[in-house]
Fold this sequence. Notes:
Elements: H1 3-32, H2 38-50, H3 63-68, E1 118-125, E2 148-149, E3 158-162, E4 168-175, E5 185-187, H4 189-195, E6 201-207
Parallel strand pairs: 1-5, 2-4
Antiparallel strand pairs: 1-6, 2-5, 3-4, 3-6
Amino acid sequence: MERRDRVLVAKVGAVVFAWALGAPAILADAAAQPNVSVASAVSGASAVARGPVTVVAPLLPAADELRTSAGVAWPELFVPAAPRARASTALVEPRSSVRAAPAPARRAGPGPEAYVRDGIVLASWYGPRFYGRRTACGQTYTPEILGVAHRVLPCGTLITLTSPTGRSVTVPVIDRGPYVAGRALDLSNATRIALACSDLCHVRMVVLR
């Protein structure tokens, strides 16, 4: 056999050997690509085998083969990165920025001034914003009504009031109040005028019945 024939046989043998080694990888790569059929990959490989080939490039194994090959330190380039941990989807209830409304303050019980039957007490008065409302004793409160508000005396109880100037008037209990510590009576507007009292005044009260 001539030298030229031996060279040709060696080339053909190299191509066949390369095809035997790379065919599984070519078929696997073709199967992974939806637009490339296995038949076209095979025909392409056959064309390479038929044509003049001077250099045969080694085929890289698949990523799984790289990762599982024992005894070979493959570059991390071929190893898929570990998946990132997903952020927690648990809903975290935000703290409310609106504070709960404070519980309404309880009214203090009647002080000792509410139990005076004959003595000097501190009186205030209540007026315009209460006009037209019904009192605790059932009357309609007006600027002309005579009466007082008291914490504990029954509705209709008659009280004689005397101011520091000597003016005196007898009026019934028509409402509940006052709710300020130290005050024994809330005078109606007409009662305040009859006694010539200012916003606050000391009066002598005598419970009649």
